[in-house]
Amino acid sequence: MGVVVIANVGIKDIAAKANVSTATVSYVLNGTRNVSPKTRERVVRVIEELQYKPNVIAQSLKSKRTNTIGVIAEDVTVFHTPEIIDGINDYADRHDMHILLTNLRLHKRISRSFDNVEAYRKYAENAVSELLGNQVEGMIYIGVHTRDLTGLIDTRGNPIVYTYCYTHNDVSIQYNDEQASYEAMSYLVTKGHRRIAIISGLMDSIPSRLRLNGYYKAVTEFELPFDPQWIKMGDWEAESGYNMAKQLFTLAEPPTAILAMNDVMAVGVLRAANEAGIRVPEDISLIGFDNREFSDYLIPRITTLDLPLHQMGYQAMQTLHKAIRGLPREDLQLPACRLVERDSVRNIND
Amino acid sequence: MGVVVIANVGIKDIAAKANVSTATVSYVLNGTRNVSPKTRERVVRVIEELQYKPNVIAQSLKSKRTNTIGVIAEDVTVFHTPEIIDGINDYADRHDMHILLTNLRLHKRISRSFDNVEAYRKYAENAVSELLGNQVEGMIYIGVHTRDLTGLIDTRGNPIVYTYCYTHNDVSIQYNDEQASYEAMSYLVTKGHRRIAIISGLMDSIPSRLRLNGYYKAVTEFELPFDPQWIKMGDWEAESGYNMAKQLFTLAEPPTAILAMNDVMAVGVLRAANEAGIRVPEDISLIGFDNREFSDYLIPRITTLDLPLHQMGYQAMQTLHKAIRGLPREDLQLPACRLVERDSVRNIND
DNA sequence: CTGTTAGCGCGTTCAC
DNA sequence: GTGAACGCGCTAACAG
Question: pLDDT digits over A161-179, tens only?
């Protein structure tokens, strides 16, 4: 109807209609130089009239700055990725930067064999190539789990920040695993627990080891009883939580609380308890890890540790931004996890 | 160390090092014209040696094609958004298109007052402006829930496709709500259920109404008993599922199965059942909607309807792509939901 | 047929 | 306040 599809108006259209040179228009737009109020006024009016927007592409060509960074997500459908991207956006919005998103779609393409780095190297390298071709000023790489990606890609000297994974040579943004499990332990102690078991993730994982450190630290500091049988090795999956919990339940001196290194294994614990007629939290207390959405919908609602994902994304973007600008790297605080208190821990002081 | 930061090599660097003109390099790169094997060989070697990648920015400036589309996500942290983006990526990857991602961050910025369109119009318009400035060839808008966004933004004639929301004037990609609830009902009937209750979402929502249509259609076709008391109006939140379930439990003729219009309300039903000592599925069967991650972690695991999110993203991108190319719009099939059979429905034929 | 020169796209910026 | 060179790659027109 009244809608007119406007052929892209350019700076010279403005110049023509306002009877000035293109240079003047540019000066008005950018305030790069003084322009007499009268001409400025005239130019501004035409600009608004024609709804002119500078062609960022052309600007970039000259300025060699695109204000665009590339985000390589190994898989956007993995639970932590969207929130990290949200943090990246948060910072990017405040600094007028744009995000070119690449999604490696790892889960769908190579299923669970993440360890086979070769299998997806070509995807990752393609992503980097395309991004560089698009003149991004830097990149953020979001992994599907915390692991070493040294040598996976070569950014040819362009800045990159890794998060939810790391390399030996580059900056990476992680969160404080040790503090997190220590905090969970402190909380349990506050609630009167002393015999506390832990179900770890795979032991080739750095987070597993760091969280175990936090556990040991708490055991030492609070002088808790220690029994190696309370340390169970899981593999992050619910099934392992289930199996380990069953073992814990049959111990001569069973723990009064279990700390599972992720919410998924916590579900396994819940299932095992359910099956054995053991009630959570009345008979045994449980803390998960990750604050996955479902942890709030379980019965009982699971107390867990919230990951500072937003902050990680924000810091990653901030760090990258400084690197692009050539500014020195600030020593940012290692993002901390936050205990989300719900209904799966009983206070046994009462 | 051995790492050399290479100043961006351009076509003329190649030309110089290979002793040819830039035109020849361009012809080699694009195969636009015949180049003698010898020179080609020489040029190719230099290109590889210097790891040259054409500057897409410069290419776009001339070709007026950026192969980039803008995705405006109202909120990337909402459960359905990542999977839709994944579908968009899937199509984009196959057609060498790039995604410039904008995240309106609606949840964090304006909390839950989504109905107040004015509150975020400015965010949306900014997003469109920036995207257009970046010369995207089209846009996909991903809503946080299915509602009418007519008049929210003006793309100035540029193609746009909406998904998980719609307008009166533009193309939008939805899924088949009516088929979904009908399918759930058929399944329940197969399992011997005839007295089936439904807990709807807010009734100003189109999905609520369509799903109710599917319910009625099944009631009619299968000649099921009908009692208006079995139709409960919820508001999508767990609390309402809880309240409505309690009402259903106290009916003189209670239903044998409940269909909740989302998994969140299904959790409410589960809680109410738990409290009342009613077992799912032994005493009452339950079907949710959305196949939210947590539905698989509940006890019992909830049978639910999986949303064709990936397909929606794929179709949105496909539709947009055709529009950009000026091709006629194909009539794509309305994506269907898929019943995910788990443990919350009992076969009462046995 | 192969290779080169020169102008273009669009906004910026320097010299006048 | 203006003309024109410039950035980088593409390509029409031209030369050998």
Answer: 999 999 999 999 999 999 9
